Amino acid sequence: MVKIKEFRIVMPMSMEEYEIGISYTIMKMEQQNTNSKEGVEVLQQVPFEDEKLGKGQYTSKNYHLQSKIPSWMKGFAPASALTVHEESWCAYPNSRTGFLIICYQCPLFSKCSLTIDTVIRPDNGCSENAHNLTSEQLAAREVEVVDIASQSRDYWSKVISAPNVDLTAFRSQRTSRGPLLKGWMDSCRPVMTTYKLVIMDAPIWGLGERLEDCIIAGERALFLACHRLCFAWIDEWYGMTLDQIREMERQTDLLLKKTLKKPAKAGSKHDGKRKTLKEEIVAVGSCT
């Protein structure tokens, strides 16, 4: 059975700021979660043009996430044999992302499909059909408004292990935004919402429904962690330009490839002090 779930993530920033902030956050999270054994491998980043989406950037990545695979999935194939392949077409403010689980030892996974359609609007999550769904799709869709000021303690939130920031007490020094107190989504300005439509299909008898629920829960935890950090790191990326972001993406892609190939050095664990992405790039570059 195909599952359709729409996550609405309200953010205390403008759409222009969000484009910068979310790109910065994704880069930094990928770098912090990549080491010599597992992490993110960027395969390709090139411009594209599509009749529906328009002009944008196509990205292809492989995720080697052996330590994050649930134990029950390892019963079908060893974690070392599992790779998640991602293709993304981003034409801001809209994008489409598709995922494929690659496992030669368990070809059943190739039948599964996961797509995420993203629409971004300058509202506080009040658009009831941002993706222009049909009546049948609307009837099957489940909607959840994700509050970035909330915290989760489920399995996937622990696996992602993102830095813990209390946004109900956080205040940006550069923008004076925050803290995000009860009712903030109705009163904050500027405000925008990213509408993420997750469609998961795992047509595997006896496993499909559990896998669908697992993957959707994982995506929710990732959305929450990523957007929480996007606001928590606002003082690092605020004021940057798209040209600066694109240059940092090029540098980060090279560093991720080097990091995945090089052996881990003793004493190289994160020292607990939060670094900006620029500092992370310099630190990794000095070890290569």
Textual characterization of the structure:
- It is found in: Nucleus.
- Keywords: Nucleus.
- The structure is a single chain.
- With about 290 residues, this protein is of the alpha+beta class.
- It has a single domain (about 5-260), classed as START domain (Alpha-D-Glucose-1,6-Bisphosphate, Chain A, domain 4, 2-Layer Sandwich), CATH 3.30.530.20.
- It is about 30% helix and about 25% strand.
- It has eight helices and eight strands, in the order E-H-E-E-E-E-E-H-E-H-H-E-H-H-H-H.
- The chain has an eight-stranded mixed beta sheet with strand order 2-3-4-5-6-8-1-7.
- Helix 7 (about 240-260) runs parallel beside helix 8.
- The termini are far apart.
- The model is unreliable at about 265-275 and about 280-288 (pLDDT under 50).
Task: Describe this protein with a few key phrases.
288 residues; alpha+beta; Alpha-D-Glucose-1,6-Bisphosphate, Chain A, domain 4; eight-stranded mixed β-sheet; PI_transfer; phosphatidylinositol transfer activity; nucleus; START-like_dom_sf
